[in-house]
């Protein structure tokens, strides 16, 4: 248990049996009336985002979420298999839990696996990943005043929009949160 004064970004709350991550919070002290805390919460499992207001000093139940560095090994056809680099324990995680992160994970890459009571909640990738372009059509400069973009399929199977000068076989940096092209890797 914690009070609303202890709320921070990233803390996980247990509200009505569901796990919610605090994405933003603001302590408000109006001119009259009691103080309160305005929060934006994201459901850990479904990704749903809601705004919730708590009175100041109210106790809220926190959830114990363990985040650990894991190495992605392989996909066994059904689940994704991760290994703890310290203990060599292997954990199978369902595709629903991995979600969109699967399109940006290479074998032997390091990810953060969040678990609650031993149950995997979600997989967190670094802010940028380096992947090779498996296929993209040649970029043709046409009649336009701004730079264009084209789809490129990555070695993991994910498709991202890249500038016209990117060619098949080049290594690029991608933001795995939204699939945005960040630049070339030298």
UniProtKB/TrEMBL annotation:
Residues 129-184 form the Elongation factor P C-terminal domain. Pathway: Protein biosynthesis; polypeptide chain elongation. GO terms for biological process: peptide biosynthetic process. Coiled coil: none annotated. GO terms for molecular function: translation elongation factor activity. Keywords: Cytoplasm, Elongation factor, Protein biosynthesis. It comes from the Bacteria. Involved in peptide bond synthesis. Stimulates efficient translation and peptide-bond synthesis on native or reconstituted 70S ribosomes in vitro. Probably functions indirectly by altering the affinity of the ribosome for aminoacyl-tRNA, thus increasing their reactivity as acceptors for peptidyl transferase. PANTHER family: ELONGATION FACTOR P, ELONGATION FACTOR P (EF-P) FAMILY PROTEIN. NCBIfam families: efp, PRK00529.1. Belongs to the elongation factor P family. HAMAP family: EF_P. This is Elongation factor P. It comes from Actinopolyspora xinjiangensis.
């Amino acid at each position: 248990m914690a009070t609303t004064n202890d709320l921070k970004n990233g803390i996980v709350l247990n509200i009505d049996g569901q796990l919610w991550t605090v994405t933003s919070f603001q302590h408000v002290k109006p001119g009259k009336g009691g103080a309160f805390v305005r929060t934006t919460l994201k459901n850990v499992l479904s990704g749903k985002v809601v705004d919730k207001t708590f009175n100041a000093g109210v106790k809220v139940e926190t959830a114990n979420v363990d985040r650990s560095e894991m190495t992605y090994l392989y996909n066994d056809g059904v689940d994704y298999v991760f290994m703890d680099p310290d203990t060599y324990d292997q954990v199978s995680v369902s595709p629903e839990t991995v979600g969109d992160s699967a399109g940006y994970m290479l074998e032997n890459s390091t990810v953060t696996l969040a678990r609650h009571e031993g149950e995997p909640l979600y997989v967190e990738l670094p802010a940028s990943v380096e992947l090779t372009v498996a296929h993209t059509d040649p970029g043709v400069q046409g009649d336009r005043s701004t730079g264009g973009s084209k789809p490129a399929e990555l070695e993991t199977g994910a498709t991202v929009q890249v500038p016209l000068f990117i060619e098949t076989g080049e290594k690029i940096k991608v933001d795995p949160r939204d699939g945005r092209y960040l630049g070339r890797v030298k």
